[in-house]
Request: fold
Amino acid sequence: MSDINSEQTVKNIYFTESRELLDSMEISLLSLEKDNRDEESINAIFRTAHTIKGNSGMFGFGRIGDFTHVLENILVCVRNGTIEINSEMIELLLECHDFIQILLNHYESENGLPLDQESENLFKELITRLNTFLPVSDSKAEIAGDGIKYGIFDDEVPVSGNEMLVGNDCWHISLRFRNNVFKDGLDPYSFISYLSEKGEIQNIKTVYEDMPFGDAMIADLCYLGFEMDFRSTISKKEIENVFDFIINDCDVRILPPNTCIKDYVKLIEELPEKPMRIGEMLLEIGSLTQSELEKALELQSEMSGSNDKAPEELLVGNILVEEKMIQKNILDAALTKQENVKKREESNRKLIRIDADKLDQLINLIGELVITGSNVKQITESEDKIGIAKAVTDMSKLIEEIRGSTMGIRMVPIGETFNRFERVVRDLSREKGKRIELKIIGGETELDKTLIDKISDPLIHLIRNSVDHGIGTPAEREKAGKSSSGTITLNAYHETGSIVIEVSDDGEGLDRDKIFSKAIEQGLVKPDQVLTDYELYQFIFQPGFSTAKEVSNISGRGVGMDVVKKNIESLRGNVFLESGMGKGTTVRVHLPLTLAIIDGFMVKIADSFYVLPLDMVTECTDINKDELDSKEGGNYINLRGEVLPFMKMREFFRETSGEPDKPKVVVVEYSRKKFGLVVDDLIGEFQTVIKPMGKIFGKLQWLSGSTILGTGEVAYILDVPKLIQNVRD
Amino acid sequence: MKLNITRKRTDNDVLSLKFSGEMTVYSAAKVKDILIKELKSCSGIIMDLAEVDEADTAGFQLLLFLKREAGIMGKSFSITGLSGRFKSILTLYRETI
Reply:
């Protein structure tokens, strides 16, 4: 058990490391594109291929080894100058980079099964293309010498038999016709021939084991069955539909592509013929490989061995279950597939690279804590009350620091993610015939690892939007009096308790009129309504809202911005849009610093405690009750000459009892705007662990969680951005 | 049911049978009876199916059956000509008889 685990750990490290290498390879390739003499980059790319190749050998990931080997050959020539770097070469190397990524994903999730046909073809294509670059003298011999094996896989990972997936990516269909199918005027030929129009029958085998011999055989009864492998993109339902008409005269069993081996075990059990015979047939038509079959038969005999019932009884009793099982098989296969993906994501999340300094700091702090701890123990034995108090204070201070630096471990600079976007911008702008540069500012800004993983997709979407809609073609830009090449800027920085990530372009900006008329068209506003920019831009986040004249393959379908917004909101973040016609667009994403622990500021309203994120609190002030009440209608107070909108939290929570004479105002700031929250009393700073609220509270958007106080009471953590929205509305 | 069988005994006691017409579920029983009888009295059978313009899966099943029976009895069994219809059936089922 522990062996498997440690092997898995080593594999995880391999995958993480390989991905990191690939990331840096991509950056090197892109910089090589700008300067094709950059030796450092060439070396870095070479190292990547070399390391990945070496490591893949350890796990027997054959395809990765084969591929990187060829790649390495090319890179050797690039390094010693035999092959010149040109844009075609860079393009090919980028494709190779992508392909290695596909291979990594494959080996990580597929439990060592063969590649699918598509990847296999890509593999061959890329190898061939790489070879055309090699100088004639050392090309083919090298490859033949090292024995690149097409189609032989020596990398089967031992997995427990039942869960093992079958490599074959075809549907497997078993048909058993009943005796009177001919008499009913039906000809299996027409159904199978109809099926063959829906896809490709890869292989088919006639089964006639049950046909009686000699005189016992009655020629107008049907004794046939078929086992076939069927390659098609149609669904199980559609396959079933093919046999709809004959369903009373035929048992149809359908196994999905790449299903669990246990489904085949079940199939072998269910079919009336002898297991060995069915097995042979499955082998013959290529549904199973020899080793898969052996596994299946082994499992099958184990299963039937433990069953004492007579075979007839089994068959009859199982007919009903059988039907359901087929459904279940498909479910199983789908689940297994999902689980694999999930497992991979989990293992991705498990590994974080930490700056050694951060770890050292943490260890130092723990060391000090241990010393202080023993100090506390010593002092408690004496009667020195002041000493105890001091030691306890020291200790809680240390605990706080440790918390801080532990949280810091999860923080990683966002720069790595930003760098990845360079490729996105490059590829997209080429495709669109635009010239676009990506400028990165604040790459060193640190963000929670989980957040970074989750924010990457929405950011890519925003960048795509900028490339596709924001920035025009060089001709269009020159016409508008701008330089022919556009710029997309990614900027990350801290701002009152949140991280802000800006995606801005110097393109055409949002067209107010267009959005407005589209909104009217969709019935979102009335033609005579006057809207602020903020309100108007909110429409962009509506599902299905797009002003793009054409739908392109990148964007414009109107699904996207709403998803971006939803994703960001699920991280307790927010999106803002700023745009000037002809000047460009800036999308600002605000995200909370961390997800789990916050420094809070506790306040009291009536008898309940509430926590506000401390980072958002800018100041607190007293206010006279009269001053609050005297404002008729408008909820504003004068804060040192500034207009401060406020909200009475008592009213918000509908508390009526015991109003204090001197309520307090907590001034919070979010996204450069200040608001006052009127509370009964201020308690003070408070470190809290956010506990998520149950689903019942899902609708209370201003509530981001709860926390338990030292006294056992519950305090609610308020979601300031959402509260502010409430004030605004 | 239209089916004509022309039989010709060749050397080595092999029976050559030329079929024309249909070999379907309607004629299968008949053909089976005839051929089982014939099989017993010869050393092998050659079937010419070039002129069987109608065939179906029952006909196909019959061929499988005859081939197996012949094998059990130790007699030779082969097919010389195939009509277009039979060809398409055998192609779909990927059987060579």
Q: What stands out?
A: The mean pLDDT of chain B is 87.
